[in-house]
Amino acid sequence: MLYIALYAAIGIVSLGFLFLFLKFFGLWFRALLSGAPVGMGKLIGMWLRHVRPAVIVDARIMLTKAGIAVESDMLETHFLAGGNVPKVSQALVAANKASIPLPFQRAAAIDLAGRDVLEAVRTSVNPKVIDCPDSSKGKFTIDAVAKDGIQLQVKARVTVRANIERLVGGATEETIIARVGEGIVTTIGSSESYKAVLENPDQISKRVLGKGLDAGTAFEILSIDIADIDVGANVGAKLQADQAEADMRRFQAEAEKRRAAARAKEQEMLALVQENRAKVVLAEAEIPLAISEAFRSGQLGVMDYYRLTNLQADTQMRNSIGGEPPATGK
Predict the structure, then answer these.
(1) Same domain, 120 and 12
(2) Which of 109, 125, 141 is the last residue of a domain?
(3) Which of 181, 74, 170, 182 is nearest to 123 (CA)?
(4) Residue 106 φ/ψ region, left for φ over 0, alpha for ψ in the -120 to 50 degree band, beta for the rest
(5) Is the same domain home to 146 and 189?
(6) Residue ranges of the alpha helices (H) in 136-199?
(7) 277-292 pLDDT, tens digit each
(8) What residues does 105 pair with on adjacent strands?
(9) Within a domain: residue 304?
(10) Residue span of the structural domain in which 88 resides
(11) pLDDT tens digits, 18-47
(12) Whether pLDDT at 101 is above 80
């Protein structure tokens, strides 16, 4: 029984090896005939590590046929890191045909950084045109105002080429668009008149291109072309009109404040007049008491009283003739 179990185990193991050999024989033989041999043990190890052997073999065959020496272990490592092995291999072949120095480590780093390394190589060979501003973001023109207050609406086209050396860590197209837009606004804003910009629109391209806007980006700016430039609103006149209206409202508010203060002062003076009149009335009310006291003390006679009465009557008559209110006290 022991020998039977041993022979059975050996048979099962042999069948397993035979199965694996038959499973990967096609890949192994294809790689061998292509001049990019990959050992049977490596193919089985890839399968055990959940790596797709067909992807590694096809990439190695492609690179070998292009004259690029890359070990299967490096391809497998990039696959396990989550990279796109076929795209990296295609990028290496394209760069090699275009005489662009691109080692496998750099291509793998670009791919793992989330960039399309194949598209970067193609852009490096065939420059790309970027619209500024990006119409997909809902903005179709770059609006800037010259010193004379006239608004200009500009559309630009930026021709860029990918810089492989700065592709890892370099800024993207959005940065190029933002910098070019800022340069256009600055150039137009420093112009004395909008007519000067319309006469020589190429001065915008020259000034913006001379600022070195591609520093720190993954691209090299080849040219900046003004595709269209239109005259917009008279922003300066509108701002002056708005300022005049704001000043008018401010002056009206200040005048209303002064008017309210004058009315308050008038009411205070009227109250003061009434107060003084009340004091006069009180003082006049004490006159008869003083006359009575003078009679009792003998300081005022009857004839003196009559003369005082006649004097008051004459005064009231003159006041009535002159239109003044008559005196109320006696």
Answers:
(1) yes
(2) 125
(3) 170
(4) alpha
(5) yes
(6) 173-189, 194-199
(7) 888 888 877 777 777 7
(8) none
(9) yes
(10) 2-125
(11) 566 666 777 777 878 777 888 877 887 788
(12) yes
